[in-house]
Amino acid sequence: MDRYLVFGHPVRHSKSPFIHTLFARQTQQELEYGLAEPAVDEFAQALRTFFAQGGKGCNVTVPFKEQAFTLVDRLSPRAKRAGAVNTIKLTDDGVLLGDNTDGAGLVADLKSHGVTLGDSRILLLGAGGAARGALAPLLAELPSELVIANRTHAKAQQLAAEFCDLGPVTAQTYEQLAGPFDLVINSTSASLQGELPPLAPALIHTDIAIYDMMYGASDTAFISWAKQHGARQTMDGLGMLVEQAAEAFTVWRGIRPGTKQVLRELKRNLGVI
Ligand code: ATR
To answer: Band of the pLDDT at 193, cuts 50, 70, 90?
Structure first.
């Protein structure tokens, strides 16, 4: 049977095996999908061993995405832009192809929630790996403006400079931000520590869409905060998780699984509904 897995550290709580097992059942593909948690300095060796032993493809998550970028034979254009690899496929001619489906997953999830990206003003919070992966797919949707704000302003400036050939992207400090924005995407890891990015509450209004790439059994700190200040449409990163997985599954198997039912089952599994 064709073998796939996700590399990460820690990875025990990953939902990827659950999601891909449902995709395989739904599309009647014969495959198995597992977990691998190599020591941080043993990822390269673990990856080589997996493919030497017949593995067909893998996902890569924290903290190995940047290292995976350097280990594959060939990169997709979107992985090259993202500077990170979350999906690897062994091609029929034995080439390890590195791809990145995170940004496509974000855009697919936003669209599935009915969020309009074309001609919109988007505020992207954070300038780390998650922001970098999102930029090209967001700019491809032709927003009127995309502003990056980051605690360390220099990193936002660097990202804006790197992507300004793709669209109207600028960097502003949190203090400089002036609304109204149509959509705020939180790509910071602040919610992990229960912290908030230092965003002025005045930027939140009833018609704004709020997206937090993080997710949990209950609202993230950022989503709770945005709701308190009047945001009516809030979304967490669970949908993005399922959509990036669907994109990876499509890369491997050439068949696109449906995501709605899988997302519902995942929510049930997490105790969200
Ligand atoms: P990832 O790969 O998930 O993007 P990362 O590269 O470590 O992770 O980036 C984390 C991002 O969250 C950074 O933009 C970081 O801001 P700095 O560049 O200033 O470090 C941001 N971040 C983390 N904690 C934050 C907090 N409490 N408030 C605001 N931004 C925060």
So the answer is: confident
Q: Which residues line ligand 1 (CB under 6 A)?
A: 126-131, 150-152, 155, 187-190, 195, 197
**Which residue's CA lies nearest to atom 22 of ligand 1?**
188
Task: Tell me 258's DSSP state.
Answer: P
Mutate to test the pocket of ligand 1, among 61, 66, 151, 153 (most ligand atoms within 8 A of CB): 151
- What is the residue whose two structure tokens read 């709701």? 227
Which residue has the least CA distance to atom 28 on ligand 1?
A: 197
pLDDT computed for residue 12 by the predictor: 93
pLDDT digits (tens, 9 = 90+) for 204-248: 999 999 999 999 889 999 999 999 999 999 999 999 999 999 999
What the block records as the tokens of 264 is 């519902």
pTM of the model: 0.96
Q: Which of 159, 139, 141 is nearest to 149 (CA)?
A: 159
| Cβ burial, residue 234 (10 Å; 0-12/13-18/19+) | buried
Q: Give percent of the chain with pLDDT exceeding 90.
A: 96
Q: What angle do CA 265, 32, 237 make, to 5 degrees?
A: 40
- List active site positions: 65
Task: Compute the distance from residue 112 Cα to the ligand 1 centre, in Å.
Answer: 26
Q: For residue 105, which amino acid is it?
A: G
